[in-house]
Amino acid sequence: MESIVDNEDTIAAIASAISLGKGGIAVIRVSGGKAINSCKNIVETNSKYAWESHRVFHGFIKNNLENKYIDEILISVMHSPNSFTGEDIVELHCHGGVIVVNKVMETLLSNNTGVRIANPGEFSQRAFLNGKIDLTQAESINQLINAKNLKSAELAFNGVKGEIKKKIDFIKNDLIEQLSEIEARVDFDEDFSDFNYHSFSRNIENIKEKIETLIESTKRGAYIHNGISIALIGKTNVGKSSLLNLLSKKEKAIVTSIPGTTRDIIEVNLTIKDIPIKVIDTAGIRETDEYIENIGIEKSFEMIQKSDYIIYLYSLEEGFNKDDEKIISSIPKEKLITILGNKKDLIDLKKVNKKKLSNSVLMSIKNNEGEKDLVKKIVKKCGSKEFENIDIFLNERQISNLTDCLKNLNDTDPIITHQLPFDLLSIELRDGIKNLSRITGQELTEDLLNNIFSKFCIGK
Questions:
Q1: Long-range Cβ contacts of 439-443 (<8 Å, 24+ apart)
Q2: Which helix (H) or strand (E) holds 269?
Q3: Rounded distance, CA 206 to CA 164, Å?
Q4: CA-to-CA distance for 299 and 310, rounded, in angstroms?
Q5: CA distances, 309 to each of 212, 245, 335, 374 (Å)
Q6: d(Cα 139, Cα 124) in Å, to the nearest integer?
Q7: Which residues, 6 or more positions from 55, have their beta carbon under 8 angstroms from its beta carbon?
Q8: Does 181 have pLDDT greater than 60?
Q9: Could you report the per-residue pLDDT of 69-99, keeping only the tens digit for each?
Q10: What's the pLDDT band for 175 if we cut at 50, 70, 90?
Q11: Which of 7, 316, 347, 370 would be a feasible disulfide site paired with 363, CB 3.0-4.6 Å?
Q12: What is the CB-side half-sphere exposure of residue 337 using CA atoms within 13 A?
């Protein structure tokens, strides 16, 4: 991939989502030393505010090669360093849709020299390189764009505001304080009393706890950001497809009284209490000689292994029997699972042993009864209460660096236990600080920067 660390070029890209015939406006962003002059070449305007910083003015895009107007636009200008990238920026607000905005972009590139199409994430990277944002803020911008629900967007925006950097810097400052004492002792040992390994150990344990809390919070909040897959499992004709339709509020799956109707996987994406969920309808599990149905049943067992959460359905009319127990036994113990008894409209609950039903959510999917109870169970199982106080979300790269830092601190344990020369502790503390600095972008290589920002969308 072409390097995107060199920021001498002037770059341009469509910065808004566009689609055929949709969207009132589209925005083309231009950033770099030639941004203003390059746009002057294709914009005609009579505005007295033209090209002033942080002004919006009216104009027309003109193709000078063909000597004709293309679009009527608004132009906003931001002079360096007071812009997102820290460079001169011009944003051309065109009419929406694919045809017009692509023609404006083509005109911009063909009428100027020194302007090229931006690489993915290049605007954000320039903002980072020019000190406008740190790396966690840049990555949070990308998370915000790709957020699947309001809670995920809220966590991402906290990162944009710098909350991740604050927490990381707080931990790093604690480590720097510990390192400073050790370094001072190395240089001026005669001015200090004996090194207190117990006190040092206690301080390091407190720092470890802060790191572990951040890692654990992200694990608990992963469902918010990444979503959760729920497989509907059970024998034939217990209401799996009906439940899929009920939860999605659409007739996504064919429902009949004929056993074995569902033979393939049907997926529906929805959001329940800010948790993005993929509900997966599977083939009913039974003994059959039907070749195609058996393929579907094999996929059902695959979904048991792959899904995060299993909702196991059985018929209250037939009762929970040995076949159900056999299928349940195939579900890994670490999986989230809810047992759902369906068709309660066909039985007299007064005559049923309620103890046997105490672990089941009871529903009549046909009569839309019990959906709220099921939703409550899903939310409880996914731990929504546990992530109410979570205010940031760390990505895999950030978690990896935190984990490496934690390993550095754990490696101080044998030094403390055996009271080895205390200057050995400085090696682990320095490495730990470097790993924390990598999170915010203070310890990075060009290759790593390219890899991080190449995952961003073009125009951001």
A1: 439/135, 439/136, 439/164, 439/168, 439/397, 439/398, 439/401, 439/402, 440/134, 440/135, 440/136, 440/164, 440/165, 440/168, 440/169, 441/128, 441/134, 441/135, 441/136, 441/138
A2: strand 266-272
A3: 19
A4: 14
A5: 25, 18, 6, 13
A6: 9
A7: 49, 76, 77
A8: yes
A9: 999 999 999 999 999 999 999 999 999 888 8
A10: very high
A11: 370
A12: 19
Q: Which token pair is 204? A: 């390091």
Who contacts 319 (Cβ-Cβ below 8 Å, separation ≥6)? Answer: none
Nearest to 385 by CA among 148, 179, 223, 269: 223
The secondary element (H helix, E strand) that includes residue 31 is strand 25-31
Instruction: Output the pLDDT for position 258.
Output: 43
Q: Can you give the residue ranges of every domain in the chain?
A: 10-133, 145-220+393-440, 225-387
What pLDDT is recorded for position 3?
A: 43
Architecture of domain 145-220+393-440: Up-down Bundle (1.20)
Taking residues 343-366, report their average pLDDT.
78
Q: Write down the pLDDT at residue 259.
A: 46
**Whole-structure pTM value:** 0.73
To which CATH superfamily is domain 225-387 assigned?
Answer: P-loop containing nucleotide triphosphate hydrolases (3.40.50.300)
